[in-house]
Amino acid sequence: MESQLVWAPHTEHGYVLGRVIDLKSGTNNLATIRIECNQPIILNVNSNRHNNNRLIIKDEQTIECSIENVFPSEIDLQAEYDDNCSLMYLNEGNLLHNIRQRYFKNKIYVSYY
Predict the structure, then answer these.
(1) pTM
(2) Has residue 23 been placed in a domain?
(3) What SUPFAM superfamilies does the entry give (predicted)?
(4) What number of H helices and E strands is found in the chain?
């Protein structure tokens, strides 16, 4: 599972990309996630930790969270989905990422019936 990118909850950015490096079974079922460096997350323009729409993580950082809150990421993170229902993995991380991309390209998500 370490080769697959996953979305893990982050207190500052909602969800960040990472790779599972350890699973601890038990009552908590915790996953240790290594956060990917220089990942394509569109951030608030006022943030001092971004460059060209990428989150700058200089050192290897890890976070621990419940495995229930870790979600698979889309294979192509640069792809843009007009309809969120067409995401292969419809989860909080992918949804937030797609909405962020569309928002900063002024393509606000709207559904027409």
Answers:
(1) 0.75
(2) yes
(3) P-loop containing nucleoside triphosphate hydrolases
(4) 1, 7
